[in-house]
Each structure stands twice: as C-alpha cells, then as structure tokens.
Specification:
The protein contains six helices and five strands, in the order αααααβββββα. With 208 residues, the chain is α+β, with helices and mostly antiparallel strands. The chain has a single domain (19-203), classed as Tgt2/MlaC (Nuclear Transport Factor 2, Chain: A). The protein has a five-stranded antiparallel β-sheet. A hairpin with a 5-residue loop joins strand 1 and strand 2 (131-138).
C-alpha cells in the first residue's frame, strides 16, 4: 500500500442507498463506532484490492465513504464564497464531482494489503461541537501512521467532516487552498471539470 495521504473528504448519507439492496445499516452510536466501521470496510477492500482492481474498489467503497463522510459540507467549506454564488444545478454537480473524487482517491490509494491493521485509540471533544477520534494504521514494518478524524453529528448521526494527518495538517484546509486558484480562474464549472478529470485519471490507472 502506498503512503496514505488521506484526502479530506465528506457527503450527507442517504441510508436508503445501501449496497446490494440490503437494509440500511444502523447509524453509529458514537464517533468511534463510525470510524471503526469505516476502517473495517476499508480493510476488507484492501485485502481484495488486486482482484477488485481500482474500479472494483471504487464500487465497494462508494457506499462506506458516502455513509461515513459529510461530503456536501466539506465541499461547501472548500469552495468558500463560490458556494453561495452557485446555482442549484452547479451545487449538485459540484457535490457529485467531489464525491467521485473522494471515493476514487480511497480506491486508488488503498491498493493492496501487507498486514496492516487499524486502531481506534480514543476520542475527545474538539472545537465547534466536534469530536476528535484518534486512530492509527499499524504496518507490518515501519512506523504507524497517525490519523485524527474530525466528526460532528448531523441530523442525529455521526459524520466525518475533516481528517488530520502529518501532525495535525487539515486535509480540508489543504483542499480549500488547492481549489481557490481553480475557482478564481475557472469558477465553479472549472472546479467541477477539474475534480471529474482527476477522478477519471485515478480510475484509469494501470495496475502496478
């Protein structure tokens, strides 16, 4: 598995869209439970990564990512004032493009299994009514990768709203910085096109 530059990532879950027509999974009772469930799905895909291929991993991870992350809120924050200026159709396309990229990034990055495991180490209150869940990826060799998930309740359900990596760097802040230049030059439509192009590139990667 390649180094984990987790993309901040996040979309209000429609529980009726559960994979395979199964009944919707009950909402996580705690923030830690949400993270543990997401990691369980991720680990399962990692173990079958080569057989699935990047597109198969995308299909398997789509529901867990949408169920775990508040993606509309995240892209709203990342787009800043341009979100308010966008029309309903643009907003829908932007959320869809950001969702595709978020799922595609996980499908591309977690492309194998080498004995890794995930540990949920605890949670504590964060700023602005959030709960911080400390986790780490334990590798068979090398130092663990520390990851902190920023979670918040939305309509009574826990969702991830940001991911902190590399000693506290906010992935949401990184995305906002990256998207600012694109929005300034090409507006919301330019950002939509860029996000979709990046996803297409990820999903067309050749196996290593």
């Amino acid at each position: 598995m390649r180094p984990h530059r987790l993309t901040a990532i996040v979309l209000a879950v429609l529980l009726s869209l559960s994979a395979g027509g199964l009944p919707p999974r009950p909402a996580a009772a705690t923030a830690s439970e949400l993270i543990s469930a997401f990691h369980g799905n991720l680990l399962g895909v990692m173990k079958e990564a080569k057989a699935l291929g990047v597109k198969g991993r995308y299909e398997r991870l789509a529901s867990p990512v949408e169920r775990s992350f508040n993606l509309p809120l995240m892209i709203q924050v990342a787009a800043g004032s341009y979100w308010q200026q966008a029309g309903p159709e643009q907003v829908g396309k932007l959320v869809a493009a950001f969702t595709r990229l978020s799922i595609g990034t996980y499908a591309s990055k977690f492309d194998g299994f080498s004995g890794e495991s995930f540990e949920t180490r605890g949670e504590k209150p964060g700023p602005q009514n959030t709960t911080l869940v400390s986790t780490r990826i334990v590798k068979a060799s090398g130092s663990p990768v520390e990851i902190v998930y920023v979670t918040r309740q939305s309509k009574g359900e826990w969702r991830i709203v940001d991911v902190l990596v590399d000693n506290g760097i906010s992935e949401l802040a990184v995305r906002r910085s990256e998207y600012r230049a694109i929005l300034q030059s090409g507006g919301v439509d330019g950002l939509i096109a860029t996000l979709n192009a990046k996803t297409d590139q990820l999903l067309n990667e050749k196996p290593k």
